[in-house]
Amino acid sequence: SNDHIDGNVRRYGKQAIAMAADRLQSGGLVAVPTETVYGLAADSTNAAAIADIYRTKGRPDFNPLIVHVPDMGSASELGIFNDLAATLAHKFWPGPLTLVVPKTADCRVVPAVTAGLDTIALRCPAHPVMQELLKATQLFLAAPSANKSGGISPTRAAHVENSLGSATPMILDGGSCESGVESTIVAIRGDNYEILRPGPVTAERLCESIGRPAIINQSPSIEAPGQLASHYAPSKPVRLNAETADHDEYHIGFGPISGHSCLSKNADLAEAASNLFATMHVADADDRPRIAVAPIPETGMGIAINDRLTRAAT
Ligand code: TXA
Ligand code: MG
């Protein structure tokens, strides 16, 4: 077997998948790799398992979870897809796009998953480990990012353990996450759509495939509480748009600004996104008491990066 066992961590292999599937089917939690960040997964139809997700993360009960599905067929058991939603699903699934759609009448997920809302957030992940797990379990897996609520999202197995500590469940280790920032969340509003969280599927690509831009949030409520101002926060102050750093600052660089570590020397925004959270974890653990971050262009993936950085700095 190519399974490697080290504490909670099970390196991806046939036996590890079978063990993870077994735990999920008996109401346990498993930390899983996705193409965006690691998720803390549980059976979305099991009330005790879902309560365990909220407890483990210290997540407020008004902040709903994303449900992961293997394909469009399963998604339509849980959510109602109009033409616009179906177009986006066909174009971007499997992949880092979450769609918020009305729940079906016989939607089987427990109310705590959607925090009592009549909509549900659905995502079909591209990561092969998640795909295998969804098929092996035949479950719809609720999975928020596998970190303590408000903390930095994990893009490696070690980040999960650092954040959840003694509450860490079994981790399926899939190495580093490719995208590095959480999925783009799009709410379907009839014939219009709204971007609730910028992510790897950029506003430009959404606009291209729909033929019109997203509408701007008319009710800036906490419908997506992950959108609360302070989030993804390290334990120390963060200063943005820093061309240079003070001696007591850990400097995160970009492009020509090298800093203590550079998100992307070539100023490649996709590379910067995939390095973002791992670099924030390093900066947080550094001896210097403050963090400074070089300017990141507000285009393409830069919008998602700046969104996370702004919340980290709040
Ligand atoms: O990339 C991702 O989306 C990762 C991986 C693990 O799939 N998951 C993730 O989950 O980022 P989480 O819990 O950290 O973020 C879920 C976001 C929250 O901001 C939540 O408020 C929003 O989704 N959300 C969930 N259900 C919603 C709903 N019905 N309406 C609006 N927002 C919703
Ligand atoms: Mg999160």
DSSP strand content: 15-25%
Cross-sheet strand order for the largest sheet: 1-2-9-3-4-8-5-7-6-10-11
Helix content: 25-40%
Main sheet attributes: strand count, strand direction, barrel closure: 11 strands, mixed
DSSP strand count: 15
What compounds sit in this structure? threonylcarbamoyladenylate, magnesium ion
Order of helices and strands: EEHEEHEHHEEHEHEEEHEEEHEH
Total DSSP helices: 9
CATH architecture of the largest domain: Alpha-Beta Complex
The helix/strand class is alpha/beta
- CA radius of gyration is 19 Å
- The coarse silhouette is globular
CATH class of the largest domain: Alpha Beta
CATH fold group of the largest domain:
DHBP synthase
CATH homologous superfamily assignment of the largest domain? DHBP synthase
Unreliable segments of 5+ consecutive residues: none
Quote the average pLDDT: 93
**Overall tally of structural domains:** 2
Can you walk through the features of this model?
- With 314 residues, the chain is an alpha/beta fold.
- The protein has two domains: 5-226, DHBP synthase; 238-313, no CATH class.
- Helix content is 31%, strand content 18%.
- The chain has helices spanning 14-25, 47-57, 72-78, 83-92, 128-137, 157-164, 203-210, 269-285, 301-313, and strands at 5-6, 9-11, 30-32, 39-43, 66-68, 97-102, 119-123, 141-142, 170-173, 184-189, 192-197, 238-239, 249-253, 261-262, 290-293.
- Helix 1 (14-25) crosses helix 5 (128-137) and helix 8 (269-285) packs parallel to helix 9.
- It is globular.
- The structure holds threonylcarbamoyladenylate and magnesium ion.
- Threonylcarbamoyladenylate binds next to strand 6, strand 7 and strand 11.
